[in-house]
Specification:
about 325 residues, alpha/beta, Rossmann fold, Zinc Finger, Delta Prime, domain 3, 3 domains, five-stranded parallel β-sheet, about 55% helix, globular
Length: about 325
């Protein structure tokens, strides 16, 4: 089903017993997973299996057992890797045979084209979740504020969302902390109690890395907001490529014409910082850095590896190349 169809279908009780959540928005995957669990009647204790814990045998055993006290057997699978379609077919079949058996797969990987194939059969469905646009994100935050009995004007909520670089997941977390103030919120409360993400944008974190400054805390903060290792490595590659274009243009023309290079005018302070960084490196260094990043991206896209450990190791190796 389409993303906009999910919540109305949930409210009408039209979600099948086997359902898959996947897509770009890990925040919505987690949020809708909680709603599905509650809808299926698992309370606070569904049976959750992560990829390293999963076997077909134990998943089938759970779905096949009789429900205790007339409750629901809700099996939640969480993974970044795919499960075999044949095995998913078997699990889905079990949910069609028992009125108390439910299967939810929360897939956090990036194969958005083929991963949901098994959930296209009768008795199952899936939804791909994209990062919500601003009006949807603000609606989500408004609902959360009401749930927390938090008095906050729309303009203040918009200001909070803006300070978090329009990251709904992080703004959502900040509402939890702000609710402890136990009074109506004003914009000055956001300035006082909320850590602004402006200093931790992806570009600025990359600049810290390239300037050989301490960057690990900033990267960890980005990871907490949902930025994936491959996405960060890709962003670094794009940043380095842009620096090389600056370097090459100045070598050829003796001056910088940002519009000719980028097709638009970034803020002057951004241009000044990138111009200074661009001239730090030689052509051979640019080649070596880009080759290194391509290899790192390929390694991170491989199957069963500790992506976080590899990711941080690659960043430290990259800084030693500079």
């Amino acid at each position: 089903m389409k993303q906009f169809e999910f919540l109305p279908a949930l409210q009408r009780g039209e979600i099948p017993h086997a359902f898959m959540l996947f897509g770009e928005s890990h925040f919505l995957i987690d949020a809708y997973l909680s709603q599905l669990i509650a809808h299926f009647g698992a309370g606070e204790s569904p049976h959750t299996l992560y990829a390293h814990e999963y076997t077909l045998a134990n998943a089938k055993a759970y779905l096949s057992q009789g429900s205790l006290f007339g409750g629901a057997n809700v099996l939640v699978l969480k993974s970044e890797s795919k499960f075999a379609k044949k095995e998913l077919d078997e699990l889905i079949a079990l949910t069609t045979k028992s009125p108390s058996a439910y299967l939810i797969w929360a897939y956090y990987g990036d194969d958005h084209r083929t991963a949901s194939t098994a959930f296209s059969q009768k008795g199952s469905d899936s939804v791909r979740l994209f990062d919500p646009p601003a009006h949807e994100a603000l609606a989500i935050l408004s609902q959360r504020a009401k749930a927390l009995h938090l008095s906050i004007e729309k303009s203040v909520l918009e200001y909070l969302y803006k300070t978090q670089e329009h990251n709904v997941a992080l703004a959502y977390q900040e509402l939890e902390k702000l609710s402890l103030l136990n009074r109506p919120l004003q914009t000055h409360d956001i300035d006082t109690y909320v850590y602004a993400m402006g200093a931790l944008t992806l570009d600025e974190t990359i600049a810290q890395l390239l300037e050989k400054k301490s960057f690990l805390h900033a990267v960890a903060r980005l990871r907490e907001t949902g930025e994936e290792p491959v996405r960060i490595i890709t962003a670094i590659s794009g940043y380095i490529t842009q620096l090389y274009l600056f370097w090459a243009y100045m070598r050829v023309h003796g001056k910088l014409d940002v519009r000719a290079i980028l097709g638009y005018f970034p803020p002057p302070d951004v241009v000044k910082a990138k111009e200074a960084l661009a001239m730090r490196f030689k052509e051979a260094q640019y080649r070596a850095i880009l080759d290194f990043l391509i290899e790192a991206e390929l390694q991170l896209k491989q199957g069963k590896i500790d992506k976080d450990a590899l990711f941080y190791a690659k960043l430290l190796q990259l800084q030693r190349l500079l």
